[in-house]
Amino acid sequence: MEYCDFLALSWLMIVEFVLGLPLNLSVLYIFIFRFKFWKNKSIFLFNIVVADFLLVACLPAKAYHYQLGERRSSNKAVCKTLLFMLFLNRGASIAFLITLSLDRYFNVVHLGRRNIVKNLKKSPQISIIIWVLLLPLTIPTMVTTFECCNSHGRKVETPTHDITDTFREIVFFGQIIFPFIILVFCTFRIVNRLRKKTVGEKVKLRRAVWVVLSVVVVFSICFLPSTFARAVLIAVRLKEWQQAEDIVVQVYDSLMVLSYSDCLLDPLVYCFCNSGFKDAYVATFCPKFIQKKLQMCNFEYNFK
Fold it and tell me: Lower Cβ count inside 10 Å, N or C end of the chain?
């Protein structure tokens, strides 16, 4: 990549940080002091906020290295720590977003049956278990033989190095592909259920549709493009097409920077997922005239 490309991406990360920090701080304030997430069964939503803070904390360091024209830090400890944090944020965001979608799926499609997810989301211990289970998936970023910048497809010196790279790619693609299949399935079933319901039941179903659709938007913008670009990058490297690789690397790096925007899009999920959070946020941070307009929109929406 040319220095001007690094510079442009660094400024994009700075914009994401400048917008993401106050947004997530305001969300955190609402969750703790106004909404009191532990009383409103919104522990999973709060965990997404925590994951977003991990991402926001990494952006200044990533932007600084890009300002210097470096894809990664020359300090191995810093480089691996940033990768660990980014992988952990990615995994946690996806895990809790899909869990929310499954909760809506069971509430709508299997209404009346026992909802395991609904019971699990009330327990903070389950959230801790999810974080602990995610830690082993980030281990490949901490192995001493791990090369930070897309090393799979290169000639390797040791079998261990190759195994580490392969495992990392399986994790990278698996944590996107399988959750996305689940998400598409949940969306299809909820929409199909909406068509069969009577008018009086449709308000709750529409909200469920908006929840899963908001998660689809996050996936479509933040996770799917970079995943597809990485698949192309690996294919190009295995074919040893050097000129094409230079172009694909630029595209991949750009889409990875775009993927950091999930810290800006996740609050949409919070609003669609829990009207109580949305009301608390609007009442705290929005001017009166915006509050009145939103109240009118909600009134008209509920009576459609």
Answer: C
Beta strands in 71-161 (DSSP E): none
Of 43, 141, 41, 42, nearest in space to 91 by CA: 141
**Does the pTM exceed 0.90?**
no
- Quote the radius of gyration of the chain (alpha carbons, Å): 21
**Fold type of domain 3-273:** Rhopdopsin 7-helix transmembrane proteins (1.20.1070)
Give the residue extent of every domain in the chain.
3-273
Sequence-distant (6+) residues with CB within 8 A of 252 are: 150, 226, 229, 230, 232, 233
- Helix ranges (H only) for 110-221 are 116-120, 124-134, 159-196, 202-218
CA distance 209 to 104: 8
E strand residue ranges, the chain: none
260-292 tens-digit pLDDT: 999 898 888 888 887 788 888 888 887 776 666
Burial of 141 (C-beta count, 10 Å sphere; 0-12/13-18/19+)? buried
